[in-house]
Specification:
homodimer, alpha/beta, seven-stranded mixed β-sheet, four-stranded mixed β-sheet, about 40% helix, elongated
Chain lengths: ~550, ~550
């Protein structure tokens, strides 16, 4: 995000590679030059000017015979626009401005851009190429219909479409439907990589005019696909003719249709990419995780090992007098299984020092232990320049079952959008994947199977404070992700007392979530900019 | 926010009082029934239904002869709408839906509502009354022009317009301009009170057809004004005739034009109201502040004493070996001046306990002290149920000159939108106001005059790490509030090396601000939802 020079260099390298491989057109994702989403940087004049200037500078050095289609930020009379430039012959030959601006979920595009209202068709090697940008494709009867009426020979669509569980099928269905409606092949190119709380999963798709998939790129992987697509020529009245002569290929390209990832594998990859990119793009190399022997921290550690390699993952066990024997043993087994580096810092001397100075009981004493651990993690982080990972899951965040400035400390929270039942499912999946690969399963079986406990008082169990996760998570999924109300939840058959209790917990914990670290969105509705609710609220569902 | 029953009861009580005082029309602020802003609650079906039902229930009990104009949330085919209901005779007689939805700054209305596209004119006692909602009034050539073309006899405008420094003059100018354009008196009624990081300052205004101010309500005070406004009858073709007979008043009403507050007084009131409402509406009564003897914590304490009364304000001094002698003395003087309750907890035993367990040096050791203080504050907060107030100012937040989970802990941050130079200005203003009132100035002079220091290492001064505040704050104001870029800052004459340094600090600290507590917006651009920037960003202004 924002690295205009670095992104231009990447685009140039890929365009040159494409040209060297005989490509006639190179299509890059939405706002590839600036990164996406740029958020309020779109409103800053200096950034608008820099992006508009960078596209000109880039155009001058891109392979002149290639037509490169590159997303960037432009401005018209101070109004920021989400655009693509059609670049050839060392200059920007035409531009297309996104017409439909998503302003729901994680998107604030109506805030950050001014929409376009013109379609664009350019003739390249005799083919009339139409261009749309991301949301344009999703709106019925809008920019897509307008373009379809112009009968392009092919449609190219740069996208910045973040990962959501199971979203891939929706995308493929849409791409097929639009190709059939337009009656032309359609190429959907999506961004890859992590950016704050979003992960872009690629999953680029090309279909023919009947909606048959010609090619599909792997999910979560940066790369380039070379495609040879049959398209009818001279089908439209183009806005611009770049070239008329038919394109000739000197060889046959066999397009790949990538294997689709399963549900757990897909989520695992999303979190790995989100974490890796947050760490690296923010200049960190090593991460630090408090290891309790429990499943949440074990899962985060396993993800971190996959993202960065175990030698860059540091664990710290911080036992207290309430820690069970297996806490340390399980953390040690995790370290042996994965190869991460484990150290131990006892929190008892610090806890005792506070307890001597202040009279603390009950929740205050429980929270104290969590906060001493938080301070310990941050001290090591500061001393050794490691990024602390918070290990809270979505069930905990939802219910406020975490301690602000305690277990909630960290720069990134990999599993904040994963309900507890999925924490277990992902852990089992990862161990099974290791077994299939003939590797050592990373996560200790006892961490998966033991009863969840915060271990902040004697014999404490999560079930003392929370409903059973299997039921809790179902209520949460419907209340948080589906935004259903009390009456709808009751109508689904959930116990009324449970529903009341869960809703009250979720509503009350909004202030905690506001101060929680960012983490990758993988669900339909993640906490954060995907779900914006007041902290101060007297709305009660019943 | 969200307290439909409570708000309905308040509306009813005021409507009855209005009717008893002979009023014919009662005008309430934007979304008075639901509270404002409702954020994503607008998207929840259960809340849409509840609001729409509540307006019917309220309508049935409102004084039947009065015409009450009440803002609420409605829904049409699942689409949420920001509306006002015109209520009389025990039922909703007509509605008007907001046509222009602000989606900039702190507003996300394009996300949360579907706009209307119809004007509304109702005849009440022979006067053709036009209605607009807030943003409708600000857009040239839109809903206001459409309504003006219908030549209403008076225009009533409910608003939810948050406080910003100096905004009042803009409002008055707009109200006057629109009244003249429409050629009719205009009544602008604004919400009062704090809601998370917004403060609504009231400042309701009535002007005649020539734009002369007839009445202006006090800022920051809940209340009701009774106005007798001259308006021409039967000027338009109304959508609905409620009554034709001329309204008679049995007495003469002398409208008040409230004294405008000065800049510091206005800001002081905004923060006091914001803090008070956050505390009370979230079910707290007492607040806790770490008192360092420095100016930031002294100012926050003085504000808290004004907001809640000193008996509900608790201070804790947490000296370390780096604390100067005057730290405790100044905190004690503050306590004597204000009457707040002060206690002392030495952090040395806890710091020593950490230092024995871990080898910490430099920044890690400095941050440790701040985090031990943070944990101490939270321990007291948990034990005694007090809301911790964070004492960071906007200069610190901008530059990242604070410790996450250390001095940054808290549920509310009263001065997070106040630059350091204004921290001093507000402190001097408050002391002077006390002197004028013959009261004891709350803030110790030495706290105002001593050189700022975090006191985390021997002889540390803010000026070791930061430019002089007088210059720093000017650069920040232009970079953060005005969103100017590097070249523009240089063109203003700022030292290039300083500009480069300040921009780098601000950009790098975005991750800290994301985890900072909420606090009242008083500037044109506050950190938080007013300024949304990526954490992961390689954009460099130069």
């Amino acid at each position: 995000m924002g690295d205009l020079e670095g992104n231009a260099a990447l685009i140039l390298a890929h365009a040159e590679s494409a040209a060297n491989n005989g490509a006639h057109v190179a299509l890059f994702p939405e706002m590839a030059l600036t990164g996406y989403p740029v958020e309020d940087l779109a409103l800053r004049k200096s950034f608008q000017i820099a992006s508009a200037k960078s596209i000109e500078v880039l155009a001058a050095v891109l392979p002149p015979k290639l037509v490169s289609i590159v997303g960037y930020l432009d401005h018209v009379g101070g109004a920021p626009q989400n655009r693509v430039a059609v670049i050839t012959g060392g200059a920007v030959a035409a531009t297309y401005t996104k017409c439909h601006l998503p302003n729901y979920g994680v998107f604030d595009e109506y805030r950050n851009f001014v929409p376009g209202n013109q379609s664009l068709v350019v003739r390249i090697h005799g083919i009339d190429v139409g261009i749309l940008i991301c949301e344009d494709l999703w709106v019925d009867g809008g920019a897509t219909a307008k373009l379809a009426a112009r009968t392009p020979g092919i449609v190219l669509v740069p996208n910045g479409s973040p990962f959501e569980r199971n979203k891939d099928d929706v995308r493929a269905a849409l791409v097929k439907k639009r190709a059939i409606e337009i009656g032309a092949p359609l190429v959907y190119v999506n961004m890859t990589g992590g950016q704050d709380d979003l992960v872009f999963d690629g999953d680029s798709i090309a279909v023919d005019a009947r909606g048959n998939v010609i090619a599909r790129a792997p999910q979560f992987e940066d790369g380039m696909m070379l495609l040879d697509i049959e398209a009818a020529g001279s089908t439209a009245t183009p806005d611009l003719i770049i070239s008329e002569e038919e394109a000739k290929l000197d060889r046959v390209l066999i397009p790949g249709i990538s294997h689709r990832l399963g549900d757990e594998e897909e989520i695992w990859n999303a979190i790995v990419v989100g974490l890796r990119d947050y760490v690296i793009k923010n200049g960190f190399s090593q991460v630090l995780i408090g290891l309790s022997g429990g499943i949440d921290s074990a899962l985060v550690a396993a993800i971190a090992c996959d993202a960065l390699g175990p030698e860059l993952v540091h664990g710290v066990a911080m036992p207290s007098k309430y820690s069970s024997d297996h806490s340390i043993e399980d953390a040690e087994e995790l370290a042996r299984n994965t190869g991460l580096r484990l150290r131990t810092v006892s929190i008892e001397p610090m806890v005792d020092a506070y307890m001597n100075e202040m009279k603390l009981t009950g929740l205050a004493e429980e929270n104290l232990q969590a906060r001493v651990r938080g301070t310990t993690l941050m001290a090591i982080s500061n001393q050794e320049n490691m990024l602390v990972l918070a290990t809270g899951n979505k069930s905990e965040l939802a219910c406020g079952y975490s301690t602000l400035y305690g277990d909630a400390v960290g720069g990134y929270a990999p599993i904040k959008d994963i309900y507890k039942v999925d924490v277990w499912a992902l852990s089992r999946w990862r161990n099974e994947a290791a077994r299939i690969a003939g590797e050592k399963p990373p996560i200790p079986v006892r961490s998966i199977e033991k009863e969840p406990s915060a271990e902040l008082r004697p014999d404490q169990k999560d079930s003392d404070s929370l409903p059973e996760y299997e039921i809790l998570d179902e209520v949460l999924r419907n209340y948080v992700d589906e935004d259903l109300g009390h009456n709808e939840l009751i109508a689904m058959g959930f116990d009324p007392a449970l529903v009341k209790r869960v809703i009250a917990m979720v509503d009350k914990a909004e202030y905690k979530r506001r101060q929680y670290p960012p983490g990758p969105k993988v669900s339909m509705r993640a906490f954060g900019k995907d779900r914006r609710l007041p902290m101060t609220s007297h709305w009660r569902e019943l």
